[in-house]
Amino acid sequence: MDSRKPIISIRNVSKRFGGSVVAVDNANVEIGEGEFFALLGPSGCGKTTLLRMLAGFENPTEGEIIIDGHRMEGVDPNRRPVNMVFQSYAVFPHMSVLKNVGYGLRVTGVPPDETQRRALEALALVKMEQYADRMPNQLSGGQRQRVALARALVKRPRVLLLDEPLSALDAKLREAMQLELVRLQHAVGITFVIVTHDQDEALSMANRIAVMESGKVRQIAAPADLYEFPNSRFVADFIGKMNLFEGQVTGAAGNSIVIDIAGLNRITVPYSGHAQGGVGVAVRPEKIRIDHAEPPNDRVKLRGKVTEVAYFGDESAVFLENATGVNINVNVPNDARRTAAPFAIGDEMWISWNPADTLVLAE
């Protein structure tokens, strides 16, 4: 964690259902005050269960959760300094936008004048004050989501919990709302904890990300560190696109190691840790270059035949296969205005990358 004071401490937390199903397995996470933190992983990895334990909807089987300096054991959800925005938004269909947002204040006895003032302030934060008198069925999905955010923020929680809040939106609106959530978090200055299975969503919004697999927290890091320096095959493969090979360490030379990669070449790459035996060898598709001419000897290089080209507008994904049947994916930016690629399916090309861009994964 960075220098922020921790507002959430998750210490040795496990959650089992029915005695045998382990949803969360000995999780240890600290989240800083004012941080935008993401719990990221595939379906069934335990991220939503962990969020529900923060909210108080589930209790840990083992371990403890501390929020804002207080242990949460036995503390009901409505008495915790958190509020939650659900995937379904859960907006009351029979209430106007303003009444939806003020509902939580009204039921706790806040006077009507203060309830209205704070509800309008919360709507202004999410740029929805002009819709105060509308009913939910008169709103788009993105607008309903903003109402749900305002309703959660109106009670001024210390922590806002977001459970897949953008999953019901279309791609264009989801991208816009990612930026909007970051703006909102900066504006209110409170801690946001978001659960998502969408790596792009987590990378674009969070200060730090915890990647989970099978109930375990595999790595916690800032987005750039997570992307460039994953600590295992799972994290490397889950975050972004990756070419992942199996290799055997056959020697060391100074601050480098020598690896034999199955179906490829023997390579020498920088590595400061200790590795022996079988390792994962990985390289991001955007770090690889395709050339007609042979690259210089200071690069890892091999020959491959183009088998497929997928055009995405700003870039093309090019798939190649070498003589031993190993497949390699290369991202080629479409940085010149043309309609035909400089290579075609069946072309024999050189593939190369800087040895320093090679990841060595012991796990």
| Biggest sheet descriptor | 6 strands, mixed
Our estimate of the beta-strand percent is 35-45%
Structural class, judged by helices and strands? Answer: alpha+beta
DSSP summary, beta strand count: 20
CATH top-level class of the largest domain: Alpha Beta
Q: Count the helices. How many?
A: 8
CATH architecture of the largest domain: 3-Layer(aba) Sandwich
> CATH homologous superfamily of the largest domain - what is it?
P-loop containing nucleotide triphosphate hydrolases
Helix content: 10-25%
If you compute it from the alpha carbons, what radius of gyration comes out, rounded to the nearest whole angstrom?
25 Å
CATH fold descriptor of the largest domain = Rossmann fold
The rough form would be described as globular
Low-pLDDT residue intervals, each spanning 5 or more residues: none
The neighbouring-strand order within the major sheet is 6-7-8-3-9-10
Which whole number gives the mean pLDDT?
A: 89
**How many domains, as an integer?**
2
Order of helices and strands: EEEHEEEHHHEHEHEEHHEEEEEEEEEE
Ends apart, CA distance between termini? 23 Å
Write a brief caption for the model.
23% of the residues lie in helices and 36% in strands. By secondary structure, it is an alpha+beta fold. Helix 3 (112-125) crosses helix 4.
Describe this structure as you would to a colleague.
This protein is an alpha+beta fold and 363 residues long. The protein folds into two domains: 6-236, 3-Layer(aba) Sandwich (Rossmann fold), CATH 3.40.50; 241-361, Nucleic acid-binding proteins (OB fold (Dihydrolipoamide Acetyltransferase, E2P), Beta Barrel). Helices cover 23% and strands 36% of the residues. The chain contains eight helices and 20 strands. The chain has helices at residues 47-55, 97-106, 112-125, 141-153, 171-188, 199-205, 223-228, 233-238; strands spanning 6-17, 21-32, 36-40, 62-67, 70-71, 82-85, 159-163, 191-196, 208-213, 216-221, 243-253, 256-261, 266-270, 278-283, 289-291, 300-311, 315-321, 327-333, 348-353, 359-361. Strands 6-7-8-3-9-10 form a six-stranded mixed sheet, sandwiched between helices. It has a five-stranded antiparallel sheet with strand order 13-12-11-14-20. The longest helix is centred in the middle third of the chain and has 18 residues, at 171-188. The radius of gyration is 25 Å and the shape is globular. The two termini are 23 Å apart. The relative contact order is 0.11.
